[in-house]
Amino acid sequence: MIEVKNLSKRFGDVEVLKQIDLDVKQGEIVVIIGPSGTGKSTLLRCLNYLEVPSGGEIQIGDVRVNAGKVSKNEIHQLRKQSSFVFQSYALFANKTALENVAESLITVWKEPKDKALETARKLLVSVGMEAHLEKYPAQLSGGQQQRVGIARAMACKGEVILFDEPTSALDPEWVEEVLAVMKALAKQKQTMIVVTHEMQFAREIADKVIFMEGGVIVEQGPPSQIFGNPQNERTKAFVARAA
Ligand code: ADP
Ligand code: MG
Questions:
Q1: Which residues span the membrane (predicted)?
Q2: Structural domains in the chain?
């Protein structure tokens, strides 16, 4: 369902992503691990065209773009295929939880407001936020804000949800509730690509783990391989340090 070929990204002279190939099947949970500064966020951002790739091809669902020659319309179509959960939540401060989740349904999908709010309510209930529908982000804990962020991503109706370290800005007490919501999503076979430092979580939910370092995919495989029997020395060293 997702096919990335030869994806590269340069910032000036620095090649941050080097010829990345990536395949993700429908319903698959792919977890990306690796040291910081390795290009994990850049990879996710390129998939959503938040960052413009320097080269390569991206296909998500039935939308395929070639980084060399891509039209505005193709970028728009590609963006609709995925949604993002950011480390920093990135909620609208002047909108309630309900309005934050309904926003893309109204602006991107052109749904009538009542229908969008009703869908948003259901999604917020599904992430355990029924008591906080009318609250503004500043009235919510970090864990609650991130659950709104996840409900908002679910509302986008894309093929895949991209998570960039969704728990790393949270106080430790809020991490588990956010991971629990992600586990529930994984059970429903929502296709997800998750960058995380939560190794235990990765081990539990991933169908495939990708270890990235220095802008390349060093090794990928099932969690049993990456955590239990890594084939590459650098994977071995990283996993040993992270454990
Ligand atoms: P990770 O998410 O694995 O920590 P990033 O994808 O954020 O890594 O960053 C990879 C490299 O790209 C880093 O060296 C970072 O400094 C650089 N980088 C990221 N974004 C930009 C940018 N907008 N301009 C210049 N360099 C950037
Ligand atoms: Mg990052």
A1: none
A2: 2-87+158-242 (3.40.50.300)
